[in-house]
């Protein structure tokens, strides 16, 4: 199940709006919400009596005018059918259809069944969409949503409440962009910096912020911000993207993808583990904090026997590459599906933003990969403390993947 995106402030509008439009597009409600197309009307069930009168008026005009059935033919089942006559001998009110009338009535009933199914499905999808707005949108943006108004009115009311101050939204995007383009120190968390910059670019371009729309400006801000942390990539990118910047064809998602790949390669070459912003492995001695180096000994490890004084000390071994795996949901190293904050946001430490374009990409990848979706659902059943499909007890993924050491910060974040 894909996690909900919440609209608590105007900074959440762009990502919530994209998610909601995708939500209604899957349910084929886009024309109803955005283009003013009315929803399907409830179909009326065909009346058997009306078909009997319509097709028998020509042969029996006197009986059709009275609304009664035609006389049964010789050999018909009308005399022996208990529905054709009442116990007191009077004629039954259930009409007897001719062959033509019966075929037309059955065709009309089949069409009614199809139209009724479409109506019920659309009615359910509209109710689900309104329920999604109710549980994800803050009350201050949802105060004008009247319960009996159509879905299009609900969406228009929310959009009008969020975007009522264009100047304020532009100023907000400008402040966010300025905070995201600060110069990153050499030992800073570059992956967290990239996430913040990408979110600022998404909001800035959606609100047509001038610095975010100018290719040369935002590229210069990007390389200046990470020049101390990743000088090799900055040097090569200034040359490689020069033509794209000049022609205004530079695509910032492509630049971000190239930058993240360079960061992963740089960390792999230096044997470093990513910071908390990139789902670091909190095991002692594995780069769990700024104080502990990548080769620091865990406190509970057994003491290493002393070597002879003349023996040359062996250099410390870097962490095994087998432990430095990448998540199949978000493509980030240092964790697996059990430890992905985008799948289990309750594990995220305080201050980590689990919502944004990264969340959208993770959700889209899970929906497009049936095998990955099944694994995620299985992990969520483990998380709830249930059993697996074969009846075996679930395992504790926290202790298996080293999340016990972060339990305190997770509990604080959950409060």
- Gap between N and C termini, in Å? 23 Å
Number of strand elements = 0
Morphology call = elongated
Query: Which range does the strand content fall in?
Result: under 5%
**Measured on Cα atoms, how large is the radius of gyration?**
33 Å
Q: Mean pLDDT, nearest integer?
A: 76
How does this model look, in words?
The protein is mainly α and 415 residues long. It has three domains: 164 residues, no CATH class; 105 residues, no CATH class; 78 residues, no CATH class. Helices cover 50% and strands 0% of the residues. Helix 8 runs antiparallel to helix 9, helix 9 packs antiparallel against helix 14 and helix 15 crosses helix 16. The C terminus is likely disordered.
Short synopsis of the structure:
By secondary structure, this protein is mostly helical.
Structure keywords:
415 residues; mainly alpha; disordered C terminus; 3 domains; elongated; 18 helices
Topology:
Layout: H1 13-26, H2 30-34, H3 48-56, H4 61-66, H5 99-136, H6 139-142, H7 151-162, H8 166-180, H9 190-206, H10 210-213, H11 215-226, H12 231-240, H13 242-247, H14 252-270, H15 357-368, H16 370-383, H17 397-400, H18 407-414
Helix pairs in contact: 3-5, 8-9, 9-14, 15-16
């Amino acid at each position: 199940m894909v996690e909900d995106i919440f609209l608590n402030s105007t900074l959440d509008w762009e990502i919530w709006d994209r998610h909601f439009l995708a939500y209604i597009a899957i349910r084929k409600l886009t024309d109803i919400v955005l283009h003013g197309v009315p929803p399907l009307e409830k179909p009326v069930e065909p009346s058997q009596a009306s078909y009997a009168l319509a097709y028998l008026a020509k042969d029996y005009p006197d009986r059709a005018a009275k609304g009664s059935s035609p006389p049964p033919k010789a050999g018909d089942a009308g005399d022996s059918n208990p529905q054709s006559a009442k116990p007191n001998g009077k004629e039954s009110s259930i009409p007897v259809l001719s062959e033509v009338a019966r075929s037309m009535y059955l065709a009309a009933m089949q069409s009614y069944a199809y139209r009724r199914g479409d109506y019920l499905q659309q009615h359910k999808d509209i109710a689900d969409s309104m329920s999604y707005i109710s549980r994800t949108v803050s009350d201050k943006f949802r105060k004008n949503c009247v319960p009996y108004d159509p879905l299009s009115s609900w969406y228009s009311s929310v959009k009008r409440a969020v975007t009522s101050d264009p100047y304020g939204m532009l100023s907000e995007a400008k402040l966010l962009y300025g905070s995201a383009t600060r110069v990153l120190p050499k030992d800073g968390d570059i992956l967290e910096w990239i996430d913040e910059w990408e979110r600022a670019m998404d909001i800035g371009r959606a609100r047509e912020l001038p610095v975010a729309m100018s290719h040369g400006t935002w590229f210069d801000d990007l390389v200046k911000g990470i020049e101390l942390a990743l000088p090799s990539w900055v040097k090569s990118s200034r040359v490689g993207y020069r033509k794209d910047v000049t022609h205004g064809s530079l695509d910032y998602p492509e630049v971000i993808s190239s930058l993240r790949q360079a960061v992963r390669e740089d960390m792999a070459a230096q044997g470093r583990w990513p910071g908390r912003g990139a789902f670091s492995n909190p095991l002692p001695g594995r780069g769990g904090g700024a104080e502990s180096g990548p080769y620091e000994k865990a406190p509970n490890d057994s003491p290493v026997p002393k070597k002879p004084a003349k023996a040359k000390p062996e250099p410390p071994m870097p962490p095994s590459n087998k432990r430095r795996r990448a998540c199949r949901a978000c493509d980030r190293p240092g964790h697996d599906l059990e430890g992905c904050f985008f799948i289990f946001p309750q594990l995220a430490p305080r201050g980590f933003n689990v919502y944004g374009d990264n969340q959208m990409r993770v959700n889209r990848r899970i929906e497009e990969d049936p095998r990955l979706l099944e694994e995620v659902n299985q992990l969520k059943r483990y998380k709830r403390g249930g059993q697996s499909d074969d009846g075996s007890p679930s395992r504790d993924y926290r202790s298996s993947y080293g999340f016990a050491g972060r339990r305190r910060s997770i509990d604080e974040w959950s409060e």
